[in-house]
Amino acid sequence: MAGFHQYVNRSHFDLPIALALLGAMGVIDAEMLSGYVVVGELGLDGRTAPSPGVLLAALHAGEQEKGLVCPVAQGAEAAWAGEVEVVAAPDLLSLLNHFKGTSALSPPQPGVVDAPVRGADLKQVKGQEVAKRALEIAAAGGHNLLRY
User: Selecting from 3.30.750.200, 3.60.110.10, 3.20.20.140, 3.30.230.10, what CATH number does the domain 14-114 have?
Assistant: First the structure.
């Protein structure tokens, strides 16, 4: 079960909330952030993870004459939106360095969108009914499991 770490009720607000807090604390320029639509999940280790609807978010950003910040795994998909500045970051630190100007992220090119990687499935586990039930309850509540 150590490999079971899929999100069930995904949220695309983790990354925007983190950036908003960093802007409010003065770590990055909040005014500059107001020029971007931000989508993506953020892991406890600071890595970004895909969230649904990035192409629609990119199209919306273009209509609002804003850029888009998204996870690096979705940069190629977001780039299909056309003349939208897409900042696709692998992790929060890279994104901070990009916005501070210390290390710029390369703009993604439109490309093939990879299918999401599917992890372990509880159907593969034989027995362990109490442990499986605990995992199902955690997933139903939108909680994630740590991987050791």
Answer: 3.30.230.10
